[in-house]
Amino acid sequence: MIERLKTLYELQLIDDQLDELEELRGDLPNAVEALENKIKNLKDEISEKEKERKESLKKREDNEEEVEKLKASQQKFKAQLYQVRNNKEYDALTKEIDHTEEQVNKLEEENTSLEDLGQKLSVEVEEITPQLEELNNELKVKQADLKEIVKTNEKEESKLKKQRETVAAKIKKPDYSAYMRIRKAKKGKAVSTIRRSACSGCHNIVPSQRQLEIRRNNRLFFCEYCGRILVSQEVSESFED
Ligand SMILES: [Zn+2]
After folding, report:
1. How many CB atoms are located within 10 Å of the residue 189 CB?
2. How many Å lie between the centroid of ligand 1 and the Cα of residue 2?
3. Which one in 56, 127, 187, 196 has a CA-CA gap of 20 to 30 Å to 237?
4. DSSP characters over the chain
């Protein structure tokens, strides 16, 4: 039974070291992720604006073609004015000419606002681009920092992870689940020991009778205050050297 308790305590010791390594990375992984998201959003924004600008350019070209066609037929109508035989024909032609004129004006107006829109979008893209560059530079620096830290601790981390696997394999499933559940709830610390008659996790005094029971190392005890797995000093001291 004492082996069962020792193994749990050993797992805690390994996890403590892994937690320390993770702490060294600090906020860097989060910062990198946040920057990556920001950059993606800006890139999306730029391509959205570029797309809109290209569409407005295409529409302008189409409109210009249409204007050319309208003007050509207007010329034709105007030439025909000289060959009219009666008022009715004359009225019909002038109506056509006026109508073409209206259409030309409408398209030209539309093109003026499309040109404005295109300029507005270009300016907006120009404003975003330096922000994007700045964020990219910031990201490069943070990524390099993170890589450096990861690289420095790579060997130690993989050694600890292997140790952890070996130790975790020795632990029964229910014990492991309890350990992981408490570890999650208690910011990493699932196993505590008794120091100066108190739980090393929450510093509450463990009643003497309970301490006696725990010293027998014959079952799993949980601290009645913080819920951590409580092991005897005999267990914890077996790892001190
Ligand atoms: Zn406690």
Report:
1. 19
2. 20
3. 187
4. -HHHHHHHHHHHHHHHHHHHHHHHHTTHHHHHHHHHHHHHHHHHHHHHHHHHHHHHHHHHHHHHHHHHHHHHHHHHHHHHGGG--SHHHHHHHHHHHHHHHHHHHHHHHHHHHHHHHHHHHHHHHHHHHHHHHHHHHHHHHHHHHHHHHHHHHHHHHHHHHHHHHHHHHTS-HHHHHHHHHHHHHTTT--EEEEETTEETTT-PBPPHHHHHHHHTT-S-EE-TTT--EEE-HHHHHTT--
Contact (CB, 8 A) for 146 and 29: yes
The tens digit of pLDDT for each residue in 84-131 reads: 899 999 999 999 999 999 999 999 999 999 999 999 999 999 999 999
Measured in Å, residue 194 CA sits from the centre of ligand 1 at 9
d(CA 139, CA 32): 6
Could you tell me the distance, in angstroms and rounded to a whole number, from the CA of residue 214 to the centre of ligand 1? 13
